[in-house]
Amino acid sequence: MKESGIRILNRSPDSSNRDSAHFRLAWLRNTILLALAGCMVLSWKLWISTRFFPLTPVSDSLPAIHFPFDYLWFFFVLALLALVFFLPRAILLFVFVCLAIALSLWDQTRWQPWFVQTIAMLAVLGWFGWKKRQHQEIALDLCRLIIVASYFWSGWQKLNVNFVRQTWPEIIGFLPQAFQFLGSDVPASIIPIIPLVEIAISFGLLTRRFRNLAVIFAIITHLFILSLLVLSGENTVVWPWNLAMAAFVFVLFWGELESDTRKIIFPRNIFHLLILIFFGALPALSFAGRWDSYLSSALYSGNTRQAVIYMRRPVIERLPGVIHEHIWQSTEPFFLDINRWSFGELNVSVYPENRVYRKVAQWVCRQADNDSVIQLRILGKPDPFTGLRNSEYYDCEQLR
Q: In terms of CB atoms within 10 Å, which end of the chain has fewer, N or C?
């Protein structure tokens, strides 16, 4: 009896660690699936082809997906997601990830930060999550790396004067009058604390000593952001994502003493190296315009390109009526705000890259028979210290 007790005692730590990893993986997987399902349902028009906002495929050689096949693909992906939730099998998760990635190739605006992050985490879980305990720990560390990198680069992207002068006031501007003090009464010198807190969270999550404190700050941050979004009624598609991010940091980091900076950062296999490059290194190139902003955690950063399409009233009359509400028509010059149009129809912001803006402008030109008065204006990323942007102009002839 004593020997049996000793064997049980010796087995307990490993069993406890194994159960902990399995528990964290199960909760993480289910949270990701629920958040992704919520985001995709709230942005359902983004995932179909029969809409007005133009598709921007990665290649013009991809065949068009017409009705009803666009709906069938979208519903099949959602059904598969639900099946993975209730029947967690590696092969089902692998098929879901592949089909979701393939669906995103037909429109780059589908590469929203929440989609890229959750699909990457599901790919990690699909590759490692059902193997032995050692691989389960690697899966958790890879997901931790994705979360840490997201906080780190999100903070750095917001460290610019445009976030202080324009983006933060715009966010507050959508709030009810009773909450406007958050914008008008807060000194501009205080606002940079927001990105600095995000960067501090990323470092805190990497350390055992400050990990739980970083989790608390992360949860408070996401609850604060979610409160602003709910009060303003804006950008409902990221409401589930903010709840999920709070859950991610809790499930992955709270009370975790086994993982450390070395295990999270330093690659242990090729998959780990790819995640480190994609989420940890390549976002640095976005500051030089060599990597996409939304692949670099730049949502709500004020550090992305913007674009409008100038036009005259005869051109407006040739465009579908659903687009008119997104055209500024009070005074000349009349212009179509591409981002507001994307929000209005798809419930997501446009993918803020020049190639996407040009595709959208090409569609408008075709609708108006390539009218010479149509002009696309792309505003480049702002100077981080002055907020000034360079502008590029294209007419329909140049966009052909």
A: N
Count up the domains in the chain and report the number. Answer: 2
Mean pLDDT, residues 255-278 taken together: 93
Range of the domain at 149: 15-43+112-295
- 1 lies in some domain: no
More confident residue, 188 or 42: 42
pLDDT tens-digit readout, 120-147: 999 999 887 666 667 889 999 999 999 9
pLDDT band at 9 (very low <50, low <70, confident <90, very high): very low
Residue carrying structure tokens 């602003």: 228
Q: What are 225-242's pLDDT values in tens digits?
A: 999 889 888 889 999 999
**pLDDT for res 151:** 97
SS3 sequence, the chain?
Answer: CHHHHHHHHHHHHHHHHHHHHHHHHHHHHHHHHHHHHHHHHHCHHHHCCCCCCCCCCCCCCCCCCCCCHHHHHHHHHHHHHHHHHHCCCHHHHHHHHHHHHHHHCCCHHHCCHHHHHHHHHHHHHHHHCCCCHHHHHHHHHHHHHHHHHHHHHHHHHHCCHHHHHHHHHHHHHCCCHHHCHHHHCCCCCCCCHHHHHHHHHHHHHHCCCCHHHHHHHHHHHHHHHHHHHHHHCCCHHHHHHHHHHHHHHHHHHCCCCCCCHHHHHCCCCHHHHHHHHHHHHHHHHHHHCCCCHHHCCCCCCCCCCEEEEEECHHHHHHCCHHHHCCEECCCCCEEEEHHHHHHHHHCCCCCCCHHHHHHHHHHHHHHCCCCCCCEEEEECCCCCCCCCCCEEEEEHHHHC
Same domain (yes/no): 28, 125: yes
Residue 55 neighbours by CB under 8 Å, 6+ apart:
49, 106, 107
Query: Could you identify the residue written with the tokens 């579908």?
Result: 320
Per residue in 163-179, pLDDT (tens digit) is: 999 888 888 877 777 66
The encoded tokens of residue 375 equal: 């002009």
Which has the closest alpha carbon to 298: 311, 314, 317, 285?
285
> Largest Cα–Cα distance of the chain, in whole Å?
92
